[in-house]
Design brief:
Blueprint (H helix, E strand, L loop, with lengths): L8 H10 L1 H32 L8 E2 L3 H12 L7 E11 L2 E11 L5 E13 L2 E5 L16 E5 L7 E2 L5 E13 L6 H11 L5 H11 L5 E7 H4 L3 H4 L5 E10 L13 E3 L2 H6 L9 E3 L2 H5 L1 H4 L5 E5 L2 E7 L9 E2 L4 H14 L5 E7 L5 E7 L6 H4 L9 H9 L14 E4 L2 E4 L12 H6 L3 H7 L7 H8 L7 H4 L14 H7 L10 H13 L1 E2 L15 E2 L2 H17 L13 E12 L2 E12 L2 E11 L4 H19 L1
Parallel strand pairs: 1-5, 7-15
Antiparallel strand pairs: 2-3, 3-4, 4-5, 6-13, 7-8, 8-9, 8-10, 11-12, 13-14, 16-17, 16-24, 18-19, 20-21, 22-23, 23-24
Organism: Barrientosiimonas humi
Protein name: Cell division protein FtsI/penicillin-binding protein 2
Subcellular location: Membrane
């Protein structure tokens, strides 16, 4: 390596004045510089070989490359196969020996970098410099010559999901992971395993493929709760190559409890690892769905990987003490959630269904139940026409715009609006002396069309928002949800159909429960599911006279109207509004059945997603709502 040296005037003066002595000073300088270069070159060669995981390609003094390579594999095996970056820093030479500071950065399997300075000894033998192998480790200053790194994974627990009063909705419990070791398993043992876990024909194919690839990676099979694993333990014990590991994982009281809202925990998928390689790694257990996924960064433990000296666990070289995840506080009440889920299960209907319950006083969400439990979260995210449940909002618009509930409004079986025939459910009608209260109780569409005809195009949209439909309260809720939509009307037919919850109106069960809670409370309060600070949940008062009259009408729905099925419900008076929304199904016209209302301090919305034409909220949703409130009353 060529080096060009520029002498300062002072140095040049020394050389000239010193004669032969000056010549020797310059010669020594040039020889020392060359020696430095040669020593550094040996250090850089060692760094390159290390980064390539081929230390045998470097030059050594005191051993051969194969010995160094074997020592490297033993010492660093625990650090994994992540990228290594090494640069040569300061070099200090004293004659034919030197020390080079290697700046090492080794990426661990959690994506973090283990960084250290490794002072590597160098020596000159003959005309060549190389790495001096002696009584110190080449790989870290705190390792013994034959020492090794050790890596400890976190044993900190994931945060739990809590409900009202600190109730544990998903608590850490022991689970058992069943896996196949492809190096030790046999077709016979895996065939037996298939029978035990109920995966006939699937696992043998995975074993064959793994053996063909000469894979050493364990093949995940199934994760069992303790209660499910215990009856199978004897059948799994002793099977060649079948590995069972136990660990802690948050679980709900049953597999279906709170699903799909609460979500699940499982191994990070290949797609997750590919999208966020610095966050996820193979074998890492993470939130896969629901609240577990949405709040994974909160619930997951941190600082869970430390590098120590093997045999000296207190000698921490990298990482911090593992910290458990933070528990997530929700407003869910286990008692109310159980009652809602049981009521859906008792219905025995093949149609998807949902129940949402709110605390009237606070607006907090008490239950989010879905059927089936392994489907979508239709209770929060569903978008459905609300049918006649929206007459609550239409009535609020009427009563706050000069309309009187004493008004006698005809209720013919059908009515023509701008050339379009609009009819009542089953072509029902009311006596000529019936007033608007009767039309509300009996859910007369034609009366609502006539009563609302003089409302401004945005009046029903405004009243819906005042009751909580179409307002963005997801920030206060703490999770994504559909808040509903009641747009300003466009034309007479659209205006007429919106008055009874058809046309372009949409709502989720949660948004209709918010509406019912607003009437019961006398104010609109944004709902809350995940407890958090800093969000505005200031109540917005409603017109007291209007909500007072609507309460009376919703009680009349139960005492003598379409909600008579709710009579005799334990726990006190029920206030309700039925709803039936027709839509074009895959096999022709079908209906959705609704019931919204409250009893005591619990507001609710019940949806049966699909019922035959001719059925509706009064005969399909009301029995489910009554069962829910009965179960809740029995729970105490």
């Amino acid at each position: 390596m060529a080096r060009h040296t520029v002498l300062t005037a002072a140095v040049a003066g020394v050389v000239l004045a010193g004669g032969l002595g000056g010549y020797m000073l310059l010669s020594d300088y040039r020889e020392g510089s060359a020696a430095d270069d040669d020593a550094r070159a040996a250090a850089e060669q060692f760094a390159r070989a290390w980064m390539q995981r081929a230390p045998q390609n470097a030059r050594y003094i005191g051993t051969d490359g194969q010995g160094a390579a074997a020592n490297f594999r033993t010492a660093t095996a625990a650090l994994g196969s992540g990228p290594i970056k090494i640069t040569v820093g300061d070099l200090r030479r004293d004659g034919s020996t030197a020390t080079a500071d290697l700046q090492v950065s080794w990426t661990l399997r959690n994506g973090k970098s283990f960084q250290w300075v490794d002072p590597v000894p160098l020596a000159k033998s003959g005309q060549q410099w190389g790495v001096q192998v002696g009584d110190t480790s080449l790989w870290h200053p705190k390792l013994a010559p034959n020492g090794a790194f050790a890596v400890r994974e976190s044993d900190a627990q994931r945060g739990e999901i809590l409900g009202r009063g600190g109730a544990k909705l998903m608590a850490n419990q022991t689970v058992y992971d069943v896996k196949i070791d492809p190096q030790k398993a046999t077709p016979s043992s895996v065939g037996t395993l298939e029978g035990v876990v109920g995966q006939r024909g699937q696992l043998l194919a995975k074993l064959t493929a793994a053996k063909a690839r000469k894979s050493e990676a364990l093949i995940p099979v199934i994760t069992y709760r303790a209660s499910d694993y215990q009856p199978k333990e004897d059948s799994l014990t002793g099977l060649d190559g079948i590995v069972v590991d136990d660990r802690q994982q948050p679980l709900a009281e049953t597999r279906t409890f709170g699903q799909p809202l609460l979500g699940t925990v499982g191994p990070a998928t290949d797609e997750m690892i590919k999208k966020q390689p610095n966050r996820y790694r193979p074998g890492m257990y993470v939130g896969r769905s629901g609240l577990q996924a949405a709040f994974d960064s909160t619930l997951a433990p941190s600082g869970g990987l430390t590098v120590t000296v093997a045999g000296q666990p207190d000698q921490v070289l990298h990482g911090a003490k593992p910290q458990p995840g933070t528990s997530l506080q929700t407003t869910l009440d286990p008692k109310v959630q159980r009652a809602a889920e049981k009521a859906i299960s008792n219905a025995g209907d093949s149609s998807p269904a949902a129940i949402v319950a709110l605390d009237v006083k606070s607006g907090d969400v008490l239950a989010v139940a879905n059927g089936p439990s392994n489907g979508i979260n239709r209770a929060l995210a569903g978008q459905y026409q609300p049918g006649s449940t929206l007459k609550v909002s239409t009535t609020y618009a009427l009563l706050t715009n000069g309309f009187s509930a004493d008004t006698k409004v005809p209720c013919p079986p059908s009515i023509m609006v701008d050339g379009r025939r609009i009819g009542n459910f089953e072509q029902e009608t009311l006596p000529a002396d019936a007033d608007f209260r009767d039309s509300f109780a009996q859910s007369c569409n034609t009366a609502f069309v006539q009563a609302s005809s003089d409302l401004a195009p945005d009046a029903m949209s405004t009243s819906a928002k005042q009751l909580g439909i179409g307002v963005d309260w997801t920030k206060q809720l703490g999770v994504p949800a559909y808040t509903g939509s009641v747009p300003p009307t466009d034309g007479k037919v659209d205006h007429a159909a919106e008055s009874f919850g058809q046309a372009r109106t949409l709502a989720s069960p949660l948004s209709l429960a918010v509406m019912a809670g607003s009437v019961a409370r006398g104010s609109y309060v944004p709902p809350q599911l995940v407890v958090q600070s800093g969000t505005d949940r200031t109540p917005k008062p409603l017109d007291g006279n209007a909500v007072g009259q609507i309460r009376q009408m919703m009680r009349q729905v139960v005492t003598e109207g379409t909600g008579r099925q709710m009579q005799g419900t334990p726990g006190g008076d029920v206030f309700a509004k039925t709803g039936t929304a027709e839509f074009d199904g895959a096999d022709g016209p079908e209906s959705r059945a609704w019931l919204v209302g409250w009893q005591g301090n619990v507001a609710f919305a019940v949806l049966i997603e699909t019922v035959p034409l001719g059925s509706g909220g009064g005969d399909r949703a009301a029995p489910v709502a009554k069962d829910f409130l009965t179960l809740l009353s029995q729970a105490g």
